[in-house]
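Hey, can you fold this one?
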Amino acid sequence: MPHTAGPHPYAARAAAAAVGLATVLSLAACASGASPSDHVPAPHPPTATANPTPQGVVTLSQANKILDTYQDVNNRANATLDPKLLATVEAGQLYARSKAELEQFETLSEKEQKDYGKPFTFTDRTFYLPAGGNWFAAQATTTGKNHTVMVFEKSSDTDNRWKKVVSLFPAKALPPVQTRDGLAITTPAATTVGKLAPDGVTAAVEDLFATGGTRQGAALDRTNENAKRILKTYKDRGKNLGPRAKVSFFPTAPVHERVYALRTPDGVLAIAPLAHTEESVVLHPGLQITPGKVGSIYNKAPRPVTVDAFQGEALVLLPEKGKPEILDYRYAQTDSR
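Sure. Predicted structure:
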């Protein structure tokens, strides 16, 4: 998928019908093949009794090569609109969104279609490399201005290959990741931090869509723009269809249910999957709903009930004190029936 932040989900549609405790290495490189920058924590002087320095799940050089490969393959897949090629470097929530974008390519404007295939590069790279496990996180700048947070995973869910499974674009800088002996730390997804555990993020965010935040979503901060945007979506649901139909959101199972968590000095950064359906039902006999241009890609037939499926991801800061803050969230419509 193209690596720009783009409009938030639903904004453009409004007018249309866990891991255990592990050490993580935080390193920076400016570009492909670059050596670690001055941001790398200095190693402690060796002593006769010192334990070996913990090694990351991959080395910095390997992480850069994984990101380089992703960059190259994604650029080629975007230029050729090839979902099979993209599937060799993407999986999980991200691939579900990217595949949907390719399926819906014809609904884009002429300019959007032209921009889709423009190549991008990752610069100003920072990696968070666990000492064990099968995933690592990264931050980078793309296209000179877009700040992205990514997760790569190598597991049976990714065909045992390093694939990118998360791509988010927070508007503000992330808090520093907590370190121990110069290495950053992850947190078990089931561990409650302040008001919420990382593995509770999915239900909390989806509750904003489903109920306006009267249940699990009550734990979340509502003052930032991301929460306000979701609550506006809830409030305006069905506005386009008017009083002759009812629109509701229902949480569903994400394609990839893995949650990732990094410690900060005052809490945890949680990266969690999202998924829901948007169900529209006519309230009077004889009425039908005509799908919009995206829904029509999957089923263009007018019908009394439409069920649109969405998959996505969220980045949420869980503070020890105060309410969790949604730093970014992304969705794509992946089906309509």
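The first helix runs from residue 60 to 80. Let me know if you want another pass with a different chain boundary.
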